[in-house]
Amino acid sequence: MELQKAAVQAAFREFDTDGNGYIDPGELSSVIHNINPELKEDEEVRTLLAACDTNKDGKISIDEFCDFVFSDSNTAVLHTWHLADGRVQQKFIDGHTRMTFTDGCTLDVYRNGLKR
Prior knowledge:
The chain is α+β, with helices and mostly antiparallel strands. It has helices at about 1-15, 25-35, 40-50, 60-70; strands at about 20-25, 60, 75-80, 90, 95-100, 105-110, 115.
Protein backbone atom coordinates (compact mmCIF):
# COMPACT_ATOMS: atom_id res chain seq x y z
CA MET A 1 0.00 0.00 0.00
CA GLU A 2 2.84 2.42 0.78
CA LEU A 3 4.34 1.83 -2.67
CA GLN A 4 0.97 2.54 -4.27
CA LYS A 5 0.57 5.72 -2.24
CA ALA A 6 4.08 6.85 -3.21
CA ALA A 7 3.27 6.23 -6.88
CA VAL A 8 0.03 8.22 -6.60
CA GLN A 9 1.85 11.08 -4.87
CA ALA A 10 4.48 11.05 -7.64
CA ALA A 11 1.71 11.21 -10.25
CA PHE A 12 0.16 14.15 -8.38
CA ARG A 13 3.47 16.02 -8.45
CA GLU A 14 3.74 15.36 -12.19
CA PHE A 15 0.20 16.67 -12.78
CA ASP A 16 0.85 19.75 -10.60
CA THR A 17 2.93 21.40 -13.31
CA ASP A 18 3.34 24.75 -11.56
CA GLY A 19 4.39 23.06 -8.29
CA ASN A 20 1.97 25.00 -6.08
CA GLY A 21 0.67 21.87 -4.32
CA TYR A 22 -2.67 21.77 -6.16
CA ILE A 23 -4.04 20.53 -9.47
CA ASP A 24 -6.08 23.39 -10.91
CA PRO A 25 -8.65 23.09 -13.73
CA GLY A 26 -6.07 23.90 -16.43
CA GLU A 27 -3.66 21.25 -15.17
CA LEU A 28 -6.53 18.78 -14.86
CA SER A 29 -7.53 19.47 -18.46
CA SER A 30 -3.98 18.66 -19.59
CA VAL A 31 -3.97 15.44 -17.57
CA ILE A 32 -7.31 14.32 -19.01
CA HIS A 33 -6.17 15.14 -22.54
CA ASN A 34 -2.95 13.12 -22.07
CA ILE A 35 -4.82 10.11 -20.65
CA ASN A 36 -7.69 10.17 -23.15
CA PRO A 37 -7.80 12.88 -25.84
CA GLU A 38 -11.52 12.24 -26.29
CA LEU A 39 -12.18 13.58 -22.76
CA LYS A 40 -10.91 17.14 -23.05
CA GLU A 41 -14.23 18.97 -22.91
CA ASP A 42 -14.83 21.52 -20.13
CA GLU A 43 -17.84 19.56 -18.86
CA GLU A 44 -15.69 16.51 -18.24
CA VAL A 45 -13.02 18.55 -16.42
CA ARG A 46 -15.76 20.05 -14.20
CA THR A 47 -17.18 16.58 -13.50
CA LEU A 48 -13.83 15.16 -12.44
CA LEU A 49 -12.95 18.28 -10.46
CA ALA A 50 -16.27 18.04 -8.62
CA ALA A 51 -15.60 14.37 -7.82
CA CYS A 52 -12.09 15.05 -6.44
CA ASP A 53 -12.42 18.52 -4.90
CA THR A 54 -14.16 17.60 -1.66
CA ASN A 55 -13.66 21.00 0.03
CA LYS A 56 -14.97 22.79 -3.11
CA ASP A 57 -12.12 25.34 -3.36
CA GLY A 58 -11.76 24.85 -7.13
CA LYS A 59 -8.53 22.85 -7.01
CA ILE A 60 -7.36 19.38 -5.97
CA SER A 61 -4.94 18.95 -3.07
CA ILE A 62 -2.68 15.94 -2.75
CA ASP A 63 -4.91 14.56 0.04
CA GLU A 64 -8.04 14.93 -2.11
CA PHE A 65 -6.23 13.29 -5.02
CA CYS A 66 -5.13 10.31 -2.90
CA ASP A 67 -8.60 9.96 -1.35
CA PHE A 68 -10.15 9.92 -4.84
CA VAL A 69 -7.68 7.38 -6.25
CA PHE A 70 -8.05 4.99 -3.32
CA SER A 71 -11.83 5.41 -3.00
CA ASP A 72 -14.18 2.59 -3.98
CA SER A 73 -16.44 5.14 -5.67
CA ASN A 74 -13.87 7.03 -7.73
CA THR A 75 -15.61 6.64 -11.07
CA ALA A 76 -17.19 9.95 -11.99
CA VAL A 77 -20.18 9.85 -14.32
CA LEU A 78 -19.71 12.02 -17.41
CA HIS A 79 -23.08 11.55 -19.05
CA THR A 80 -26.38 9.85 -18.21
CA TRP A 81 -29.03 9.03 -20.79
CA HIS A 82 -32.57 7.92 -19.86
CA LEU A 83 -33.73 5.87 -22.81
CA ALA A 84 -37.34 5.64 -24.02
CA ASP A 85 -37.60 1.95 -23.10
CA GLY A 86 -36.71 2.64 -19.44
CA ARG A 87 -33.05 1.69 -19.62
CA VAL A 88 -30.39 4.07 -18.27
CA GLN A 89 -27.01 4.38 -19.95
CA GLN A 90 -24.03 6.08 -18.28
CA LYS A 91 -20.57 6.99 -19.55
CA PHE A 92 -17.82 7.22 -16.92
CA ILE A 93 -14.60 9.23 -16.77
CA ASP A 94 -12.54 6.03 -17.02
CA GLY A 95 -14.08 5.32 -20.43
CA HIS A 96 -16.43 2.47 -19.54
CA THR A 97 -20.16 2.49 -20.14
CA ARG A 98 -22.91 1.04 -17.92
CA MET A 99 -26.36 0.01 -19.07
CA THR A 100 -28.97 -0.43 -16.32
CA PHE A 101 -32.00 -2.41 -17.41
CA THR A 102 -35.55 -1.96 -16.12
CA ASP A 103 -35.24 -5.08 -13.94
CA GLY A 104 -32.23 -3.54 -12.14
CA CYS A 105 -29.56 -5.65 -13.84
CA THR A 106 -26.49 -3.80 -15.03
CA LEU A 107 -23.98 -4.42 -17.76
CA ASP A 108 -20.62 -2.64 -17.67
CA VAL A 109 -18.68 -2.43 -20.92
CA TYR A 110 -14.93 -1.89 -20.72
CA ARG A 111 -12.43 -1.59 -23.53
CA ASN A 112 -11.09 -5.02 -22.63
CA GLY A 113 -14.38 -6.85 -22.08
CA LEU A 114 -17.67 -7.02 -20.19
CA LYS A 115 -18.49 -7.16 -16.49
CA ARG A 116 -21.94 -7.99 -15.10
